[in-house]
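chain below, 220 aa
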Amino acid sequence: MSEQSLSIKEAIVTRRSIKKFNGQPVEQEDLMEIIDDAVYAPNHQNREPWRMVANCGEELKDVQQLLRNIAIPNWKSLDPVTLEKQIQKFTTPGAFLFIIVPEDVRQKIRLEDYAAASTMIQNIQLLAWDPGIGSCWKTPDYLDAPAFREAIGAKPGERIISMLQLGYFDELPKPRERKKSRRTCDIFPLKRRRVTTFRFLNKKFCNKIRFPIMEKRITI
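prediction:
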């Protein structure tokens, strides 16, 4: 699996979040190889502020059962068809990866660690995409549930920031247009902008019915 076929640009631009997996399992050896490369993410002072809990192979049924019990608490009262439909999002991924970071009381370090772990997660997604393994980064509310934290082994002072689902897929989602740099990036020094005020209602009319004059400022 170590042979690379995609360029960095191709991996970034072609990657999609996969939500419909085909159920084919991800081999533990392949997942560990991806993680071993992904940890070369930038992180302040080389703290490597992350740890992970992986689930794949024969043990998949254990995390599927945990997710069913936590995310679908009324599952016992559901008919088989409804239950199968709701639990499918847990039974089709070929692997799960839970990323845990320390929650430092110092905001600067806490934000640095979260950002570093996020870049590492992106590395995992890109490295997995190369051999055809899709992924979806999810942050459901139950990641903070005490029962779930206990089962995953999250310690006091730690936060589970991601449930990363990985697996193979049959259909590639269509790409969505992204905002280009001209819409998201200003060039410094910033140009001074002129503000123009338009009056939209007639002054005489406004005075007659005792409405204030409506104004709108438009930045040009």
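The mean pLDDT is 90. The helical segments are 8-14, 28-38, 60-71, 80-91, 107-129, 146-152, 181-184, 203-209.
thats it, cya
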